[in-house]
Amino acid sequence: MPRSRRLAPAPQLHAIIFDIGRVIVRVEPRRALAKLAAAGNTRPKNRISGDDLWQAIQSDPLWRDWQEGRVTPAQWHQNLCARFGLRLSFADFCEAWNSTIPPKLLLPISLFSRLAKRCRLVLLSNTDPLHVAHMESNFGFMRHFAARIYSCDVHASKPSRVIFLKAIRAAQVPKRRILFIDDVAEYVAAARRIGIQALQFRNRAQLETELHRRGVL
């Protein structure tokens, strides 16, 4: 009988690239959108719901430019206020916008502390300047990452090849020695096409099992 073929083991990891939203931090847009919606038209029956507002924001003509750093926070605030009739100062808008990211993490800081002793850690996120400043100021896990690649800084967003190549350069190791972790299947597939290992994040238990299997925990 022919012998069954064994799958080749994955190459040893020297770097791990983590997405942030819905992998490390929670993302709860309804928290922010409820505040924004309430700041709209003063007649309750005419107010847009939080869910409808989120759909409208993501389809805004400036959304990609906002995510890729071609629109400033002040311009984004002015754009949304004008489009949806919001009555919010810039400071109140920033507070509402950042409330999308609650303080409780999906993954413990101790995990990154352990991984950083074995691998170079890199962050790779589609995000905006307000969320970057908020996370850098409020989350201790950041200190374990040797490099941070944000779409708003590099003017490109996943699944663009441009942003992945910047993350690979930041990892400072051969592509085959890198593992990319993201909750979005499209981005995982894009990473694999470029030649790095990739895993779609489901939950903490699944991730830790995979990292044990790969010998970095």
Describe the protein.
The chain is of the alpha/beta class and 217 residues long. The protein has two domains: 15-26 and 104-213, HAD superfamily/HAD-like (Rossmann fold), CATH 3.40.50; 29-98, DNA polymerase, domain 1 (Orthogonal Bundle), CATH 1.10.150. It is 45% helix and 11% strand. Strands 3-2-1-4-5 form a five-stranded parallel beta sheet, sandwiched between helices. Helix 1 (29-38) crosses helix 2 and helix 1 (29-38) runs antiparallel to helix 5. The relative contact order is 0.18.
Q: Can you tag this structure with a few keywords?
A:
217 residues; alpha/beta; Rossmann fold; DNA polymerase, domain 1; 2 domains; five-stranded parallel β-sheet; 5 strands
Write the layout of secondary structure elements.
Elements: E1 15-18, H1 29-38, H2 50-58, H3 63-67, H4 73-84, H5 90-98, H6 109-116, E2 120-125, H7 129-138, E3 147-150, H8 151-154, H9 161-171, E4 178-182, H10 185-194, E5 197-200, H11 204-213
Parallel strand pairs: 1-2, 1-4, 2-3, 4-5
